[in-house]
Amino acid sequence: MTKHRRYDYDNRILHVVGRSVHTDVLFPDPDFSRMFWNELGNRSLEFGVDILAICLLGNHYHLLVRGKPGPLADTMHRTLSKLANTRNRRHDRRGALIGRRYQVLPVKDPAHAHRVIRYVPMNPVHHGLTRDPAKWRWSTHSILIGKRPAPEWFDRAAALRAFGFPDARSYNRFVLQGAPLELPPMTPSELKQHRVLVLAQHGLGISQIADLIGYSPRHVRRLIGVDAAALQQA
What whole-number distance in Å separates Cα of residue 93 and Cα of residue 58? Predict the structure, then answer.
């Protein structure tokens, strides 16, 4: 279970960040993204953690939540354990999937809140994975602006209130029109790995991805973590 500092998070927004080990991917195909998404939601209901925003990418994830240290640790432990165990079993892999313990960064003040509220939904845009944050499938942004229905564990209205917006329109305007945000360090290799995952999730085959990215088919297959036949299109 993840260790936390000995203080209560009170009612602050928490930015939770986790990354895979080495060059592995957390979500090699939509099934694993869906598994993490649903497991996180169900466990958050079970342990009393409020999910405010989610964004899943190839080798890392960002969450905005509210909850006490114990319930949050239980939620993340159950969610990450299921993801790692299923990945290892289904892809015949061993060892750790998560590179290090996830980070919990309590939001300090309104300025910090504004930065992180924009940063999470805009992450796929800044990484060159999409031009419109509402089109990134594994993000709650499209739910918050009313373009997709919310699952039962996600309270859209409560999330908007927590972010300080009276409605979806004002929230969306803030996200899209804000100043560019500085990204954490990311190597060109990591960016290419993200693009491999996105192309696979959009149905391209191993050879197509290899041609577009400039990797060998063998390397693409290793990054995705599935048999080539599973990705080939008719």
Answer: 18
- Degrees to nearest 5, angle at CA 133 with 130 and 139: 105
Sheet of 50-56, strand order: 50-56, 60-66, 14-19, 103-106
- The enclosing H or E element of 84 equals helix 69-90
Residues 6 or more apart in contact with residue 134 via CB below 8 angstroms: 141, 142, 145, 147, 172
User: Which domains can be identified in the chain, with CATH numbers?
Assistant: 14-184 (3.30.70.1290), 186-234 (1.10.10)
pLDDT tens digits, one per residue of 183-206: 454 566 766 777 787 777 667 788
Per-residue H/E/C for 166-213: CCHHHHHHHHHHCCCCCCCCCCHHHHHHHHHHHHHHCCCCHHHHHHHH
User: Lowest-pLDDT range, 35-39, 75-79, 89-93?
Assistant: 89-93
pTM to 2 decimals? 0.71
Q: Say whether 96 sits in a helix, a strand or coil.
A: coil
Secondary structure class of 54 (helix, strand, coil):
strand
CA angle 86, 89, 93 (to 5 degrees): 110
Task: Locate 9 and state its tokens.
Answer: 């998070």
Query: Which tokens in the block code for residue 127?
Result: 């990484």
Which tokens hold the place of 208? 């197509």
Give SS3 for 227: coil
